[in-house]
Amino acid sequence: MMKRFAILIVVxxxxxxxxxxxxxxxxxxxxxxxxxxxxxNRVELPAGSKPLDRYARxxxxxxxxxxxxxxxxxxxxxxxxxxxxxxSGGSKNGQIVMLCPPxxxxxxxxxxxxxxxxxxxxxxxxGCSYIEIEYSITFDTVITIRCNGNA
Length: 151
Hints:
The chain has 151 residues and is an alpha+beta fold. The chain has helices at residues 2-15, 32-42, 80-88, 96-99; strands at 56-63, 66-72, 111-113, 130-136, 141-147.
């Protein structure tokens, strides 16, 4: 009996049965890096924005077919209290990338993919130093892109 079980395991492994394959295996957008590239190739930054490489760029799945992104110009004047406050909110607090110095925080030109449970960094003002983006995977298009208002 044990010999049959061992043979079955070898056959299953050889055929790939049960292997976790990424969806859209032949599509370059099947990987997170590919999705980030697709968005960055499609996005037209709003008037008043800086060049793309001046922004730190964060991404996450908003749903199965939609990606939310936040682009921001990192502030190099880090305030330890703000960073510690963000960290006290837990590792799922996306503000850490805006308020802390690298490696926890981000620098211009860097991009990161967040898991679904992590909040994207958010800002309520700042004009085009902070940009929000929604992207449809299904339609391969940027649905919305907007700069924040000014306080």
